[in-house]
Amino acid sequence: MTAFEYAPAPESRSVVEIKSSYGLFIGGEFVEPTDGAMFKSINPATEEVLAEVAEAGPADVDRAVRAARTAYEKVWGPMPGRERAKYLFRIARIIQERSRELAVLESLDNGKPIRESRDVDLPLVAAHFFYYAGWADKLAYAGFGPPGRPGAEPRPLGVAGQVIPWNFPLLMLAWKIAPALATGNTVVLKPAETTPLSALVFAEICQQADLPPGVVNIVTGAGATGRALVEHGDVDKVAFTGSTEVGRQIARSVAGTRKKLTLELGGKAANIVFDDAPIDQAVEGIVNGIFFNQGHVCCAGSRLLVQESVYEPVLEALKRRMTRLRVGDPLDKNTDIGAINSASQLERIRTLSAIGAQEGAEPWSPPCQLPDRGFWFAPTIFTGVSQAHRIAREEIFGPVLSVLTFRTPAEAVEKANNTPYGLSAGIWTDKGSRILWMADRLRAGVVWANTFNKFDPTSPFGGYKESGYGREGGRHGLEAYLDV
Amino acid sequence: MSTPSGAGDPGQTADRSTPLARTTPSGHSDLAELGRSEAALRAFLHGLPAVDQVGAEQRAAMLGTRSIKTTAKAWALDLAIRMVDLTTLEGADTPGKVRALCNKALRPDPADPTCPAVAAVCVYPAMVGVAAEVLAEAGRGVTGSGGVHVASVATAFPSGQAPLDVKIADTRAAIAAGADEIDMVINRGAFLAGRYLEVYDEIVAVKQACLETDPGRPAHLKVILETGELVTYDNVRRASWLAMLAGADFIKTSTGKVPVAATPPVTLVMLEAVRDFRAATGRQVGVKPAGGIRTAKDAIKYLVMVNETVGEDWLHPDWFRFGASSLLNDLLMQRTKLRTGVYSGPDYFSLD
Q1: pLDDT digit string, tens, across residues B72-92
Q2: Which of A281, A413, A438 to mutate to test the interface with B (most CBs of B within 10 A)?
Q3: What gap in Å lies between CA A428 and CA A426, rounded to an integer?
Q4: What is the per-residue DSSP string for A341-384?
Q5: Which chain B residues have a beta carbon less than 8 Å from that of A407?
């Protein structure tokens, strides 16, 4: 018990109305699944059932793809960009208006703290729609038009099949749907089976915005639904964000077809702290890099590389800072770390942590009281980790940081790049020239300098190597949805 | 491995060890030596870890999103009242104004005897005698525990642009008149010109004046950095360390006489400095943001920052103060609201 004990400050649940059951969103309306199968979405912080959701089978997916095809050919494809933009601006504004409701829903279904869903996820979701709404009537100037015909509009691809993960349910939806719609494609999107609810409320927003039926279709379900969508013969474009393992399966299944593919997969990012770094801010960046969203972030800074000469003060400051982290009720406005998204993810985090300890790395967690119900994992750092340890190589996707050291900038680059992944990296130094020198050599899609986990719709995001291919966000993000 | 042309030698590791690395027990004696050499002092101050502006502001903003409700709010409001240095620093100050302020300091809310007194009143040296008299009469003498302290600005406040002997005389006069806390200003001109030793020596001299007072009761020295004139957070961190090395008991943000006064990120950087200074030397130094803090909500944000940056050791009027005037009434109004459930309005609180 500390002197200044913050009283509970829970965000109200009453701002969101969750229906007891949701159908599939196909052709502009909610429909029952063909075979009637349903599954439950639970609150990972309490294990309470939030709603029943339809599980789409192959027939349902086919129906959704056909609705998308019709909308593409009859309405959305021929529609001028400036008209499409109006719908996207409208959706963006409705998201802003309903952001409190959506933030609470996201925290309930995902387990992330309300501070993050309110201050990070929802503002970025709206920003993404606003940003791509702005592109819709300017595609001729994006640099992806037919060669030799300046000023000619590039063509969309057609129907996009999109499969998104559970870590940022609504934000990943925005990353997928906003550029697809801006460029004139129609979409069938499958949200993750543990976090389908915000996508279903997004479907209601599409209705509220009078979006023409079939432009956006949402099919809920697990891996089989995703496979049916990805393998559907009338899908022109597949976009997937998720694990490298599933990404490989998808790449195999679309190989030899006409489908275009973008994959945003796992990561094992290095967060590199030099001895001249702004230490206090670097510690904030380390914490934000690995404990943001319980570490359920593909670009999380899960490998901390500290220059040996400042190893001890950095570790001491990091531990001191970690004792201030508030783990608990995601809806409490003062919570820093919420619940692990699912029992199976918790199991994976526990397994890999146990392996880390077995392999000789030393775990440390601040004292913290975890709730009895729900899925929880205390923020953890492992010291004494070497490149050979599994916790230094495999993506844990949880609040677990592996701490390594280096002696010279060249060694930092070598260690940072010594991973099959290449999604992101962080550099902490007060020396501008070193930032540029490092960024040139790091094989990672995003390199943050003196910050971490910063996102903006204008900035492209994507991976090297086994972190996937294709870029989302910015002008570059248009390319994935255009016939170039 | 090639290095980019004209970019120094970024591929090479900097060979200086950071002060954080040096803040081990073995570093104690080194710190005492710093005041003897301009070069050593400069090397030390410029070797402090940098402050990233964006990161510091982001951290301060994040701490500002904490939601302090019900019991926590009640506790924080009372603590904030006890931390106020109730201040009047106007050319128009008169004995009457200062007496009224002292009475307000003793009984901020006459309607509620459970309301605590503030930490101190803060006045110009010419008004110290009046303040000391009123507060002593109240039976809560300046030396008594829990009494309201008499703080005086000194050293040619607010600019600090006077000869050193005038500054020392200013300080001695304030103490002789009954001040037990001295809020001095640093010589920003010398600091910005890079004459750190001059700034250091002045603080040491004023500290000496605080220690050698007649009744043998040393005055508490608060050193005002005037962060609005130092501008960068790196300067704020250096000035904080400089003041602490020279003997400051408190470091204070501002005079309230320049456009930019206390801000959350500046206070954050200063809190980090006192935290690291204690880790290095074992000596705890207080922090006083002053100027521009007008609402209870803002005050609570500062307390959250103290709590999450330096911890509960600083959550006490001996270690954290607010230099403010209008803040007190908002704290009282919020306190009454929390107790009664209704807002009473500004007319129910005295304007002193």
Answers
A1: 999 999 999 999 999 999 999
A2: A281
A3: 7
A4: S-HHHHHHHHHHHHHHHHTT-EEE-------SSS-----EEEES
A5: 13
What is the identity of the amino acid at A127?
A: A
One-letter amino acid of A247: G
3-class DSSP state of A51: strand
B51 to A278: CB separation less than 8 angstroms, yes or no:
yes
With a CB cutoff of 8 Å and minimum separation 6, the contacts of A24 are: A30, A31, A32, A33, A54, A56, A60, A64, A217, A218, A219, A220
Measured in whole angstroms, the distance separating CA B266 from the mean position of its chain's CA atoms is 11
Residue B198 CA to residue B203 CA, distance in Å, equals 9
B201: annotated active-site residue:
no
Provide the token pair at B289: 């943001």
Chain A residue with CA closest to B268: the answer is A280
- pLDDT tier at B344, thresholds 50, 70, 90: confident
The answer to which of A229-238, B28-37, B120-129 has the lowest mean pLDDT is B28-37
Give residue-wise pLDDT tens across range A343-362.
999 999 999 999 999 999 99
Rounded CA separation A186/B261 (Å):
54
The count of other CB atoms within 10 Å of the CB of residue B214 is 8
Q: Which residue of B has its CA nearest to A279?
A: B49
pLDDT for B139 beyond 90: no
Residue A83 annotated among the catalytic residues of the structure: no
Catalytic (active site) residue B183: yes
- Record: contact A281-B70, CB cut-off 8 A: no
Asked whether the beta carbons of A82 and A153 are under 8 A apart, the reply is no
Tokens describing residue B212: 């050698």
- Residue B220 β-bridge partners: B181
Q: Is the pTM of this model over 0.90?
A: yes
Q: Over the stretch B252-280, which tens digit does the pLDDT of each residue have?
A: 999 999 999 999 999 999 999 999 999 99
CA B298, CA B290: separation in Å to the nearest integer? 12
Reply yes or no on whether the pLDDT at B3 is more than 60.
no
